[in-house]
Amino acid sequence: MNARPCPRSRPCRRTGLRAVPMLAALLVAVPAMAAPVVPAAPAAAGADARLRPVHTFSIVARDQATGEMGVAVQSHWFSVGAVVPWAEAGVGAVATQSIVEPSYGPLGLALMRSGKSAPDALKSLLAGDTGADVRQVAMVDAQGRAAAHTGEHCILMAGDVVGEGFTTEANLMEKDTVWGAMARAFTATKGDLTDRLIAALEAAQAEGGDIRGRQSAAIVVVAGTSTGRPWADRLVDLRVDDSTDPIGELKRLVRLNRAYRRMNDGDNLFAAGDVAGAVREYGAAEALVPDNIEMVFWHAVTLASAGKVAESLPLFRKVFADRVQGAKWAALVPRLPHSKMLPDDPKLIDRITAVAPGH
């Protein structure tokens, strides 16, 4: 790994933004294998209101085993996930931060999609940006080639680590040990790419993180190869826009995301006629978030629609006993035959609703 601090030169100030030109804001779609994209001439200084001081820490990485790619980030800035992380299945991932130029995201992906490596794509974009000295940008491509840039005028403490298939980068940190701690945590953590990205964020915060504090966080993970269905290739896409504990909240959302993915898998198995497999997946989802009443309800519906009514009734009873929404879940049951989600059998509906309190 190559750890590189930002030179201790004059920090760029928010009041100096008028002197920082930006890359072109618009990106024309580039088909696969087209000629590399060349950024247009930088816009006039101060011409784009999207220029934001998103000082932060992030990690960009590719999982060697699965090919999945992702970005995780935290900042003391509102809604960091709206501007820093970019990723596309089969192409690469980008983080753009510091005095951020958002077009590094789509332009970087377009260059990698057209065949450039992450280091070459980053080099090309930096060459066209007269504000490169205040940018912090990192990229990894689908082959695991990684690159990072920390501009010499990024606010200290600032720096990055480029490792095998990943980068860690940070600016405006309390300590100059943050990005190194992130790299060590990522390489040492077991689990899937999402687990390792979160571990890197936690390591950064444990080192002191952003000197201003914390406010928002985000994580994006995409598949290693494209299926041509972007909605299916985006495996994790979660944001915490404003929180006193953004990483903690992000971890909660990651757990929910995993549970709902298991629910979706259960739905697919049930649609394919594999009731046992569907029940297994629903059970796994409920184990991840045992207090989620909706998961229990749809598990019960699946059992009842498959003829396993006796097995479904304890689950329905648990749902209907919920003090806040239980009565509304019970009221929902008679509506489901209309959508063919339960058999059109009045006796079955009566048997299910009979386990609700008050019946």
Kindly describe this structure.
The structure is a single chain. The protein has a seven-stranded antiparallel beta sheet. It has helices at residues 104-113, 118-127, 178-188, 193-206, 230-233, 246-271, 275-288, 293-305, 309-320, 326-332, 346-353; strands spanning 2-5, 52-54, 56-62, 69-75, 85-88, 92-100, 135-141, 146-150, 159-163, 166-170, 216-222, 234-240. Helix 6 (246-271) packs antiparallel against helix 7 (275-288) and helix 7 (275-288) runs antiparallel to helix 8 (293-305). Strand 5 (85-88) and strand 6 (92-100) form a beta hairpin. The chain has eleven helices and twelve strands. Residues 4-50 have low confidence and may be disordered. The protein has two domains: 49-244, Aminohydrolase, N-terminal nucleophile (Ntn) domain (Glutamine Phosphoribosylpyrophosphate, subunit 1, domain 1, 4-Layer Sandwich), CATH 3.60.20.10; 260-353, Serine Threonine Protein Phosphatase 5, Tetratricopeptide repeat (Alpha Horseshoe), CATH 1.25.40. It is an alpha+beta fold. The protein starts with a strand and ends in a 6-residue tail after the last helix.
Shape: elongated
Q: Kindly, what is the distance between the CA atoms of the first and last residues, rounded to a whole number of angstroms?
A: 66 Å
* Total beta-strand segments: 12
| CATH class bucket of the largest domain | Alpha Beta
Detail the poorly predicted runs. 4-50
Strand-residue proportion:
15-25%
CATH topology descriptor of the largest domain:
Glutamine Phosphoribosylpyrophosphate, subunit 1, domain 1
The count of domains is 2
Helix content: 25-40%
* SSE succession: EEEEEEHHEEEEHHEHEHHHHHH
Structural class: alpha+beta
Task: Specify the CATH architecture of the largest domain.
Answer: 4-Layer Sandwich
